[in-house]
TrEMBL record:
Keywords, in A-Z order: Cell cycle, Cell division, Cell inner membrane, Cell membrane, Coiled coil, Membrane, Transmembrane, Transmembrane helix
Family: Belongs to the FtsB family.
HAMAP family: FtsB
Membrane topology annotation: Single-pass type II membrane protein
Subcellular location per the Swiss-Prot or TrEMBL entry: Cell inner membrane
Subunit text: Part of a complex composed of FtsB, FtsL and FtsQ.
A Pfam family assignment: DivIC
Keyword Repeat belongs to the record: no
GO cellular component terms given for this protein: cell division site; cell septum; plasma membrane
Gene for this chain: ftsB
Source organism (scientific name): Methylophaga lonarensis MPL
Function in brief: Essential cell division protein. May link together the upstream cell division proteins, which are predominantly cytoplasmic, with the downstream cell division proteins, which are predominantly periplasmic.
Protein name, entry field: Cell division protein FtsB
Tree of life domain: Bacteria
Amino acid sequence: MFGIKPVMLILLVILLLLQYRLWLSHDGLPSLLRLHHAVENQRLDNARLEERNEVLAAEVQDLKSGLEALEERARSELGMIKPGETFFHIIEDSDDAQ
């Protein structure tokens, strides 16, 4: 043969198998890249949800502390009015009626 000792041949085969496993197998580098991508997507989702939670927490604090925010919400969402106020509902004419 070419003077390659059996130990060197075995080591070369082991090296090739490890390289295959690193670059091409399902639990190698491609899997690591997919995991990194998934982690980055999760970080973005978490940041978006944290921002939303902060907005909701501020709104809850406003509702707990001030009557103005509560009154505004009752007017806009529930159509409530104060005693002595008159509610006017304006209906715009549609073009189809003419």
